[in-house]
Structure formats: C-alpha cells, structure tokens
C-alpha cells in the first residue's frame, strides 16, 4: 500500500521524516497540528516547526502560573518571541535541559556518545508567544575543541537573533581546566565578547550531596565561581566589567555578584519535588520557574541580542580586527623590498667600480 502512495502522501512522508530528524516529538503531532502542508514546508525551511506548546500543560499548576506571569512580563515589554541557544561540552546535559524547560521530550538525549552532530531548533507557541530553543552538539571531540561543530552551529544560526545563551556545564565536577578556557575562547572568537552579556551559566546534576562537609550553598557558590572565572578569562573580560550586577536580575539560586547569572538544574526523573509537585533542588528551590525567571531577566537586560549575520558567519570578530593591520603590513613589506632593491643597486654599482 505504501508503494502506491500519492504525491501528497509522499510529501507528508518527507515532512514527517524531516520532523523526526528535527524534533524527537514524533510524527503523530503532524496530524494533531491540522495545518496546511505548505505552512509546514515553509516552517521547516525556516529551520524548525512551530508547534503548540503541549509540554506546558505537563508542568504542575504552580509552575504554569509562574511561567504565565513571566511571559506576561515579556509581552508587556513588547517581546513575543525568544530564541535561546544552548551550548557546552558533550554529555553535560544540554539536550536534557532543553527537554526539561519544554516539559516534553523534544530532542534526543543519550547516556553515551551522542549521535547528534547537528544543531536542532525546537519552536513552541503558547498564546501568541514563540519560544525557540536551539540545542547543539558538544563542543569537545577527543579532548580538543571541536571547531567544526562550532562552524556548523554558526552556519545554522545565520539570520537568527539569539536573545539568551545557556552555557551548560555540570555542578558535580570539581575542576576546571585549560580545555574549558579554550571552549570559552572559541565561542568568544565565533560570536564576539558581547554574547556573554546575554548568557546564563547553567549547572546540571544539581541534586547532589556536597563532599567534605561543605554546605550545599557553599559548594554551589565555589563551583560557580570557578566556572565563571574561566568564562571571564577565556572571554578576556576585565574583572570590573564582569562584576556588574544586573539591575533587576538577581541570581535566585546562588548569590553571586557576577554579570553572568547562574542557574542550577536537575534533569533526572528522580529529582525531588515539593508539595506542589514542582521539581526542587536540595536548597528547596523550584528550579524550572527560577531558571525561566533568569532567562527572562537576561532577555530584557537592555543589552543587545546577537544577530548572526553573514559578516559574523564568514569572518570572526577577531579576524576583522586583524584586517585593520593588513595595509600597514603591506606598506612595511613594500618599503622593505624598495630598501633591498636600492641596496642591491648600490652593491652592483660598487662591484662595477672594482672590476
Ligand atoms: N542525574 C542527572 N543526569 C543528567 C542530568 N542531565 C543530563 N543527565 C544525563 O546525562 C546524560 C547526557 O545527557 P544529554 O542531555 O544527552 O547531554 P548533552 O549535553 O546533550 O550531550 P551531547 O548531545 O552528547 O553533547 C544522559 O544520560 C542524561 O540522562 C542531570 O541534571 N542529572
Ligand atoms: Mg545533546
């Protein structure tokens, strides 16, 4: 029967396979959407499909009402669309965080080596508000920064505006090393220093029992400080520029005087819950609404969102800076050549005299 399918059915088949590739939600949703095929084609061409945010209704009522309030705040400021970019090393919980924030299994999560090498944008609509989240492949391959992945991400982002970057790492890691700094440098070289004005440090695996008799809050603060310092150094941001507190945003989970707020995340299904059925951290904080609050704070912090244009994709900021010196270098080279030619001529004249 399948072999006899009409062109229209084949078209939908193609669409559903694209959907499966882009979004782990499954193709049942296409039927549920009830939208004309051409709209689906258009939206797929734009890099994702805009769906009704089904996962929103899966959140506990207490979380839903907090999120409604936060989105209303955005709408008050004329913001009805937000695009979040998620980046970090492999296996730190990027995809799981995307799913947790959406309340649905939108992107693939893998316990072992990931098979997703491409960025994926998931778009959800709720009451006229569009939320785009872009999940990306890990930025480390075989112990080195994966510049190829970064290049792919950049190209995927062409003509998109990023309102918030979630830089993801794990809370339950005890060290930062040179590779962490290199990742930050690579992100900064690709997107410019300004991207850190729109970023939130997300630390996953936050349901932990700290070692060495440290309290949970002290442990979180120390780990955050270590990663934030690495970001500051990797992005070459001056200390005093980094220590500015957002006017209206205060990190709810960790009290830090940093320009980059920190959000703690526990993606595991075994995460503890409060009496309202909300997922909570060991400090009692319901982390999903807290994190969305931070995200909204960053989106409206008055700093410019990042438009990824041709210029950014085809030449990094740092390369542009280097280009200023090209005429100078050419000039010096020209003078050097002229000087050598003059010296050679002098030598020839001198040589002629002695013959
Ligand atoms: N306990 C716990 N496990 C987590 C958490 N976040 C992610 N995991 C697990 O860690 C593994 C990797 O998670 P992913 O979300 O696929 O990580 P990723 O960063 O997207 O990985 P790549 O796509 O390979 O870069 C999976 O087995 C997740 O279930 C968390 O907060 N707590
Ligand atoms: Mg992933």
UniProtKB/TrEMBL annotation:
GO terms (BP aspect): intracellular protein transport
Location of this chain's protein in the cell: Plastid, Chloroplast outer membrane
Pfam family, one: AIG1
Source superkingdom: Eukaryota
One Gene Ontology molecular-function label: protein-transporting ATPase activity
Primary location: plastid
Parts forming coiled coils: none
InterPro entries, sorted: G_AIG1 (IPR006703), GIMA/IAN/Toc (IPR045058), P-loop_NTPase (IPR027417), Toc34 (IPR005688)
Any one GO cellular component localisation term in the record: chloroplast outer membrane
Keywords noted in UniProt: Chloroplast, GTP-binding, Hydrolase, Membrane, Nucleotide-binding, Plastid, Plastid outer membrane, Protein transport, Transmembrane, Transmembrane helix, Transport
Boundaries of every AIG1-type G domain copy: 79-316
Family membership: Belongs to the TRAFAC class TrmE-Era-EngA-EngB-Septin-like GTPase superfamily. AIG1/Toc34/Toc159-like paraseptin GTPase family. TOC34 subfamily.
Protein's name according to its UniProt entry: AIG1-type G domain-containing protein
Organism: Salix dunnii
Lineage, highest ranks first: Eukaryota, Viridiplantae, Streptophyta, Embryophyta, Tracheophyta
